[in-house]
Amino acid sequence: MKKRGLRSKLLSILLTGCMVVSLAACSSQSNQKNDSSKKEGTESGTNSKADKYEVTLGRMTTANPKLPDGDTYEDNAYTRWAEEVLNIDLKDAFEANGTDYDTQISLALSSGELPDMMTIRNQAVLEEMVDNDLIADLTEVWNKYASDTLKEAVDSFDGRALDRITFDGKIMMLPATDPDPGPTEAWIRSDWLQELGIKVDADHNHIITLDELKMIAKEFLEKNPGKAQNPVGMAFTPNLTGDDPSSANSINAVTSAFGAYPRTWMNDNGQVSYGSTSEPMKSALSLAADWFKEGIIDPQLGTRTWDDITSLLTNGQIGIVFGPWHMPDWLLNNVRELDKNATFEAYAIEDEKGKVNTKHINPVVGGVVVRKGFKHPEIAIQIANMFYDTMKYKPEEVAKYPEVENYINNAVDGTARPFNIEISSSTSLLDDYADIEKGVKDEIKIEDARTVESQNVIKSVKAYLADSANAATADWARYHSRMKGIGLIQSMTESNTINFITPVFPVETATMKTNMANLNKLEEETFLKIVTGATPVDSGFQDFVSQWNKQGGEQIIKEIQDQIK
């Protein structure tokens, strides 16, 4: 393949929107070593005790990993387990969170000092690394070392996962795979509904209309059951929409009720279109503008941050938030910590035909790459086998390492593992829920649930149901996220209520690389102006579509159509 300049390509991808850190900061975080400084391992990859092999990692972190005192990202129960089983020595070349992590990758690439293994989150970065011959071909080690469970998980996406990581017949990345998260859910304070005597969802299917959603928000706003200063009806972050169908704090639940799919490339019989420029999108924005004018949407819409909305929740100022099924595990649990009476119900928003619209996600959102020249790429596959097969499906093995069990039971963040990814089958979400539901109902023994996580969830749900008033917050969260969040997805699946569309997942085009950031900015600014009334809906949306096409959107559509042909 033709090599393309790293500075002009990779840095433009990875440093967009990031602040460049100082060279001093970079050097202080890097402990990169080359192969000549490492001890030799055996060819099998399971090294002898005399030949412990050092492996350097690019580590993606989070602000609150919930690590026990004394443990670090580099030295914790998960890393100690991997080191003992595989006889390796894991060292972090760099640790960073969010856009800072992308900055660290770009600095490593521009300097040529790559860690042995690192997680990447961007398909364009993978392609550039392949083009510049920087990463190892994993085909042989994947075929030889990957467990049947991992192979079946990747294969379950009908080729869509392997297609994203295969170049000229070579597997170039260990993929992170995710099942569809389902539609955006409206998480509503059910204790407030009961207190105010609000009746919705007459057929008890947990699917409500836009009118019902508006009514609930208005009642919460006017009657203020949280007894808070400055109550708010509904709050959203300023960018309004998200790429993920269930993006938290977005208006995607509203847009889906109109059949609008923002930030989505659509394919209608070979004709590509962009969901954010569609007429249904205009209709959704028009409704949101009406709600804002009526005071139902937060008057500080343009300035609210993610943390602000979390504060609105915990302060009792708001009783409706939007997001995925797992919101109780990392956001709504904050409410429970401060208010033991707080409970939530998950609802989906239906369209005029009674359907709940959503889209399939790209099954591969990143993965782990191995530096070309690293002598034992099979170690990456062996680590994956441990954390995405053994730890999930073989509790008898995990039980040999009590501190690993303790991490699982206490919900230590996944970033503590050597790789911050998930490898799941396309049906894993509902497969796990089926086990959990049966376990809670005593239809199966807890130990018969297929995954360690499901076994722990069953225990948590049972503990919550046994004494909901005094249950631990972690048990409360697992009950809400699984029995309500995933339970809603399961019931909609059984009733054939979900309408899935399959978007186009294009390879990044030339014009995307140069123009997409500005187009996204144009979209965010225009939508915010329309909803807040700063711009009229009709003329504002028409001007947006015109400018979007002129500023590269029309050309991008042509380039995507060339791809799908």
From TrEMBL:
Q: Does the entry feature the keyword Signal, yes or no?
A: yes
Q: Where is this region: Disordered?
A: 29-53
Fetch the InterPro entries from UniProt.
Bact_solute-bd_prot1 (IPR050490), EF_Hand_1_Ca_BS (IPR018247), SBP (IPR006059)
Please provide the record's keywords in A-Z order.
Signal
Q: Where is the signal peptide?
A: 1-24
Query: Known PANTHER family for this protein?
Result: ARABINOSE-BINDING PROTEIN-RELATED (PTHR43649), DIACETYLCHITOBIOSE BINDING PROTEIN DASA (PTHR43649:SF12)
- What is this protein's record name? Putative aldouronate transport system substrate-binding protein
